[in-house]
Each structure stands twice: as structure tokens, then as C-alpha cells.
Amino acid sequence: MPTKLTGILILVILLLFSALVHGQNHGNLRQQVVDSVRKSEKEWKLDESTGVNGSVSGMDTVGVDVFYANWEYRNSQMDMLIVMYASSDLAKKDYPTAFQGCADCLYINKTPLATKVPNLGDENRMWEDRSKPLTGIVFRSGKAVVGVSAPSVELATRLAFYIEHQIDPDK
């Protein structure tokens, strides 16, 4: 299962791939997602010790807003990472790099899947881990590039849709 260190590593990799991006303030996006999940998924427990909301100290020159959280569910872990860009064009440009970076650096046993999640974001890709029950989705929705991982396709998809429904395409 991904650990807190893995989540932080995802964050750092996406930030490094985004070095030319200028961020915007997106308010309480992380909290909106957390509230949405809490409302619908009573058994998912937020790990309160993790979380990034907004700009990352020491990475101000990167200029993106980052939102990270993870949940525990039945002895499994689910992670969410949202990177908000200054424009949809910048997010679209960085999306292939973000997918490849997460997949190659963090999930060595990852296999990209041809399957896409219908009606999720502007574009999306799925992967699964060959050595353990772990599925991930990386998707782009407007100015946001989002990565989620969970122990099943069904859980990863549910988490991805909770996130997408909170992303305001006009902000």
C-alpha cells in the first residue's frame, strides 16, 4: 500500500514537473473534497496527520496550488493529489508528464491500462500495480491534474468523481 512517504513523494514529483506554472488561490478545495467524501463515505477515515492545502512552503517558485489527503478504509489506504495550474493549457501540457512521473517513479510494478473512466475529466488514464491490489487514476479537469490511488478500480473511481465534482472549471 502507498505510505505517507509515497504520498509526499507524489507531491514532490508533480511539483518538480510543474516548475514553469503560475498558480492561483483556489480556496478550500481540499476541504470541499474531504467534506464530500465524509458525507457519502462514512467508513472512510481521513488521516488527519497528512494533508497539504494550497501553496507548499519552500516551493513557492513553482507557483502551483497543491492539495493532498489520504483515507483509510478496511485496512487499506486511498490517496488523492490535486495540482491546480494557472491555466487549462498549462495543465494540459503537463498532464502526460504528470502521469508518467507518478507511474514510473512511485509504482515500479505499474501497468498502464487501456481502460478509461467514462465522463471523468477532460482526459484520464488508469494503471494497476502488478504486485499488490492497487489501482490509480490520473485525470485532468480544466486547470487541475489529479492523481488518486486505491485498492480497487471501484474505490479509485469513486474517489476521482468526488474530487472532480468539487473542481470549479472557472477558477
CATH class division? Alpha Beta
Number of helical segments? 4
Q: Any guess at the CATH architecture?
A: 3-Layer(aba) Sandwich
Mean pLDDT: 76
Total DSSP E strands: 8
Largest β-sheet summary: 8 strands, antiparallel
Question: Which percent bin holds the helix content?
Answer: 25-40%
CATH-defined topology: Protein Transport Mog1p, Chain A
Instruction: Provide the domain count.
Output: 1
Beta-strand proportion: 25-35%
Shape: globular
The CA-CA distance between the termini, in Å, is: 33 Å
Report the order of strands and helices. Answer: HHEEEEHEEEEH
Tell me about this structure:
- The protein is of the alpha+beta class.
- It has one domain (4-164): Protein Transport Mog1p, Chain A (3-Layer(aba) Sandwich).
- The chain is 33% helix and 28% strand.
- Strands 1, 2, 3, 4, 5, 6, 7 and 8 form an 8-stranded antiparallel β-sheet that branches.
- A hairpin with a 5-residue loop joins strand 6 (123-129) and strand 7 (135-141).
- Helix 1 crosses helix 3.
- It is globular and about 40 Å long.
- 41% of the residues are buried.
- The model is unreliable at 15-25 and 58-62 (pLDDT under 50).
